[in-house]
Amino acid sequence: MKLTIFTPTYNRAYILNDAYESLKRQTNQNFEWLIVDDGSTDATDELVENFKKEGVISIRYIKKTNGGQHTALNLAIEMVDDGLLMILDSDDTLKENAVERILFWANSINEENIAGVSGLRIHKDGSVIGDKWFIKKEYIDATNLERKKYGLRGDKAEAYFVSILKKYYPIPVFPGENDVEKGVLWNRIAADGYKIRWFNEGIYYCEYLNDG
Questions:
Q1: Hey, what long-range contacts does 64-67 have (CB within 8 A, 24 or more apart)?
Q2: CB neighbourhood size of 129 (10 A)
Q3: Each residue's pLDDT tens digit, 95-129
Q4: Distance (Å, whole) CA 47 – CA 20
Q5: Is the whole model's pTM more than 0.85, yes or no?
């Protein structure tokens, strides 16, 4: 099974290298980095071209007219055929074993009602973003609409099966509105009973910057 790591970006050339370096360090390299540039006016295209010239990881770069992160996600779903799709924000990084653990948990699934898997987002000091894990299990299968019930509030590190995403996208696009939450898509999937296999491992380092 292959993982596509999708990064939507807009004028983040100053920090995108951090995400790149974290992908170069992955213990499992069975992934493609799909960058959708939402109309950047900085040197993002030149930076990504330099990444590609290094030839260390598989990179696909698409530049589009500015429309917001949700339109970038819609495009990413169109561009990927199968496997899993995981979002890595342009100001964040992954732990070295993130791809390895995502694929491990994805390969543990036999149930038809599982839409994907998710680890935890953490701060650089290792503290969990959102609720602390209190479940006495390594993982819990629950829909996105059941997260509060299981103490799973806060941003997580989801990877969805592309076959499921293609059934429920696109996220609505409205003229002049550049900020439609991707949770609209996650909740559509959950409303039909699809669950996520949430696992108790921090795999994603999250930063919240003012220009995010």
A1: 64/36, 64/37, 64/38, 64/39, 65/39, 66/10, 66/38, 66/39, 66/178, 67/38, 67/39, 67/173, 67/178
A2: 18
A3: 999 999 999 999 999 999 999 999 999 999 999 99
A4: 10
A5: yes
